[in-house]
Amino acid sequence: KEQEYMCHVYVRRDGLSGVVISDHEYQQRVAHTLINKVLDEFTTKYSPSQWAGMKDGDANFSQLTEYLSKYQNPKEAGAMTRIHSDLDETKIILHNTIES
């Protein structure tokens, strides 16, 4: 946590790691889902034996741009996030109906 930003970090057993820097409103579960998907996709494209010899910029990983674009709005990124959002809206409507 640094001022208005959160740093989400995940390190896998095989040593591969991912980092997402977001604002405080970005859900932790969504950030870690993004990290896991990117790391899984990366390992399907590059084997662990290739990682050691890689330097900055060596990995051509165009899928990263797609994931970052998709996860800009976490509500559209995952089914669980959409369900949680829909449930929150339903709760508000129910509370307002009960209070009326």
General description of the model:
The chain has a two-stranded antiparallel ribbon with strand order 1-2. The chain is elongated. α1 runs antiparallel to α3. The mean pLDDT is 83. It is 55% helix and 14% strand. It has helices at 28-45, 48-51, 63-70, 74-77, 79-99; strands at residues 5-11, 17-23. The protein is α+β, with helices and mostly antiparallel strands and 100 residues long.
Q: Give the fraction of residues assigned to helices.
A: 55-70%
Mean pLDDT: 83
Order of helices and strands: EEHHHHH
Radius of gyration: 18 Å
User: What class, by secondary structure content?
Assistant: alpha+beta
Q: Strand arrangement, largest sheet?
A: 1-2
Reported for the largest beta sheet, the result is: 2 strands, antiparallel
Shape: elongated
Stretches with pLDDT under 50, minimum 5 residues: none
Number of helices: 5
Tell me the β content.
5-15%
Terminal-residue CA separation:
41 Å
Number of strands: 2
Task: From the structure above, extract its key features.
alpha+beta; two-stranded antiparallel ribbon
Quick description:
The chain has about 100 residues and is an alpha+beta fold.
Question: Layout of SSEs?
Answer:
Layout: E1 5-11, E2 17-23, H1 28-45, H2 48-51, H3 63-70, H4 74-77, H5 79-99
Antiparallel strand pairs: 1-2
